[in-house]
Amino acid sequence: MKSKLYTPGPTKVPGAVLGAVGQQVLHHRSPEFSEKIRHVQDELGRLLETHNDTLIFTCSGTGMMEAAVANLLSRGDKAICLNNGKFGQRWVDICKVYGVDVVDHAVDWGVSIEPAALADLAAKHPDAKAVFVVHSETSTGALHDIEAMSKLLKGHNAVLVVDATSSVGVHEIRMDEWGIDVVVAGTQKALMTPPGLSFVSLNGRAWALVSSSDLPKYYFDFTMTWKRLQKKGQTPFTTAVSLVYGLDVALEMMDTEGWENVYARHARMGAAVRAAVEALGFRVLPAKPVNGLTVALCPPGVDGNQVVRVLDDEFGVRIAGGQDQLSGKAIRIGHMGGIRERDLPTVIGGLERALARIGHKVEPGAGLAALQRVLVGR
Ligand SMILES: *Cc1c(COP(=O)(O)O)cnc(C)c1O
Fold first, then answer.
1. Which CATH number does 15-255 carry?
2. What's the pLDDT at 378?
3. Do 73 and 213 meet the contact criterion of CB atoms below 8 Å apart?
4. By Cβ atoms counted within 10 A, which residue in 78, 131, 255, 344 is the most buried?
5. Ligand 1 centroid to 174 CA: how many Å?
6. What gap in Å lies between CA 227 and CA 234, rounded to an integer?
C-alpha cells in the first residue's frame, strides 16, 4: 500500500485530477488541446490576479527558475538574490551558472528578509537588473512579504522575480496590484497536479528585459513560446498534454471552493499543525511561517530522519526531513493542495506514535488535542 503524502511537494493528487490525467492522450497540435491550454493559462492568470500572459512549460519548478534567469538577463548583468534557504540558494546557483554578477544576500535559515533590507540593497546596487526571491521558502517554512517588496521596488530599475512554487494556491498573490514583474511556479504543490508542469507570468517591464536578453536558451525561449501561442495557439514542443488536463480540473476544484476559502483553509491548517507539533515538543523554525507546510526543529535527542522513516515504514504516512544543514534536525510536514482539515489527525496521530516508537515520551493525544483546539475553534 502506498504511503499517504504529507510532503511539501509533490503532494497528494485528488482523484478527479488523476481521472483527467488518465484519459487517452490528445495530440498537442489539435484544436481541442489549443483551446484547453489557452483556457488553463487564462485560469492561472486569474489565480495570480493578473492581466499578463501566462505561459505553461513542461518541467518542474526549477526549470522555470532557470528559464527566468536565461530569458531576463544578459551576459555580465547584476542581480540581487534574497537567499534565506535552499531555494533562495538555488537562485544564486542558477545565476552563477549563467555568469550573472550575483549579489548574494544570505541570511540564516528560518529568517524572512525584511523589505527594508531589500530597500538598502536596491539603493546600494542601482545597476541591478533583477531581484530574485522565494515567496514561501520550502526548506525553512519562512514567508516573504512580497507585497511590500514589490511596492518598494517601484521606480527602481530592477524587476522583481518571485518563485511562488509552494505559495501559489496557499497565499494570495496579487500580481498586478502589487506590481510583481515576474512569477514562476511549478504545479505539483498546492496546485495538486502530478509533477511535470510549470508556468511563468511576465509584465511589460519584464518583457522589455526579455527582448534584450542575450543569455543562451532554446527549449525555454519565452519569446518563441509566446509568438507560437499568439500565431497558432500552440506550444512549440510536445507539452505534457495529460498534465494540462489534470491541472485544468485542479484549478476548477479551487475555483469551485472559492479562492478566498482556499486561502482561509490553508491558514487554518497551518495554525493547527503548528500548534500540534509545538505541543509535541517541536519548535516551529520560522518567526513568519508559511501556511502550506510546517518546518519544525526536533526536540533534543530526536533524529528527524528517523521520525520520517518510522512514520513512513510503520504508519504509512510520508512527511519530509530537513534539507542540507537541517538534515536530521527538523521535520517538514506538507499540508497544502489536496490535503484537507480532515486529513490532519492522520499525520499528527501518526507522528505521536512514531515518537513513542523511537522512545521519545509524549503524552498520548497531546498533539491531537492541540490540533483539534485550533480546528474546532477555541
Ligand atoms: C518545489 C520547489 C521548487 C521546484 O523544485 P523542483 O524539484 O524543480 O520541483 C522551486 N521552488 C520552491 C520554493 C519549491 O518549493
1. 3.40.640.10
2. 65
3. yes
4. 131
5. 21
6. 9
